[in-house]
Amino acid sequence: MPQPNLTQHIEALIFSSVQSISVQEIILALNAVFEEEFIETQVFESLDEIKAKYNDENFALELVYLNNGYQFLTKKDYHETVNQLQLHRSKKKLSQAAMETLAIIAYRQPITKLEIEQIRGVNSDYSVQRLLEKELISIDGKAETPGRPILYSTSTLFMDYFGLNNLNQLPQLKDIAREENTVGENND
């Protein structure tokens, strides 16, 4: 096969990927198609070219490093326009119960359904099932407790959806807790 236009092939891989794609995944795909071994420096050079190309104001997209991989996202100037489309597609919106369940899983993972229900105080079967269907959470094994209940954690789609590189970027509970939410007297 002739020498590929590496940058265009990498651009196609990123464009076609539903989630962020890592440099290692790019290399695996290229090595499987072409009869040569690609290395990270070649990929990073092409990624720099792609990033420079999409930094031009004529493009509504930009290349973003997200969740240990690369993904095309809409530039901030166009967020309001895209948001309008998302509002019309709000059928896929998560319910309050699903958001509560997702928040509990995000902050306490890995966690069992029983632990989720103890925190929420209600049955969470439906919420957990919906989050699994939407691929925002995943099964992370089984607990070493009697009955070996399933453990749940957030998925890579969760990271992409909320624009996180790692879980340390989640807002800290102390940052969002307000004084009116405290119990007891404040003895300064």
UniProtKB/TrEMBL annotation:
InterPro entries in the record: ScpB_csome_segregation, WH-like_DNA-bd_sf, WH_DNA-bd_sf
Alphabetical UniProt keywords: Cell cycle, Cell division, Chromosome partition, Cytoplasm
GO biological process, alphabetically ordered: cell division; chromosome separation
Domain of life: Bacteria
Stated name of the protein: SMC-Scp complex subunit ScpB
Gene it is expressed from: scpB
